[in-house]
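Support request, please re-run this one:
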Amino acid sequence: MDKVAEILAEASAEVVEPRFRALAAGEVMEKAPGDLVTIADREAEVIIERRLRELLPVPVVGEEAVAADPALAQALHSEPAVWLVDPVDGTSNFIAGRPDYAVMASLVRAGQTVAAWIWQPATATCYSAELGAGAWRNGHRLTRTPAPAVPAKWRGSVKSRYLDPASHRRLQTSAAAAFGELTPGRNAAGIEYPDLVEGALDFILYWRTLPWDHAPGSLLVTESGGVSARLDGSPYRPEAPGGEDGLLVAADQETWQQTRAVLFGE
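Re-run finished. Output below.
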């Protein structure tokens, strides 16, 4: 666990942090329409991939490698063990000079996330989790406290960007009417999941669930006592892009159930 945390922090210090608020012309590219990538993303992924393979020689499914060759993501379903890597989560924040970004990795065995790491460079904070063994912040055990007793006191985020406009409006309207505060989120799963574990949020609804974005945070949440489940109630498992949409994360089971009922009328 400590070795992977070192790999992420060292790659971040080497090629990510020196470019924060210092990206040169030509160091921000568009890998797909509206989807930006930086030289920091690409260089960090190369370093992290090489070092993770040295630690455990299994396939690495990295966000930037999959952008170039989507077939690489099928290793999640065909291989007994896979590393997942998001070299800069929150790239839009990183480009804009906002500190809400993270460097993330997770280990998936037989389709289940068994270990996860989130490095937040701006605060030198490492979140980690191991299946069945707990969740930590910089070595301190984390336990998510239950949400307040009534939904009117809950803070949540509904990330419905990829929904059709009518569903987007319906979800936002129902959430705004039922809950105490609805935030837009911070445009980085590696910031938002820890926010939920630390009590700054009580629930988050995600729609598109790319595996490198959600495997680390989901394990962090469940190992701290929270819930991360698909909308049918099944536990989250990382899937290749194009798989199932919709993921509701909450402080506890009761909060998950009530939030789902409010958002989807069930």
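The longest strand covers residues 81-89. Residues 153 and 180 are 5 Å apart (CA to CA).
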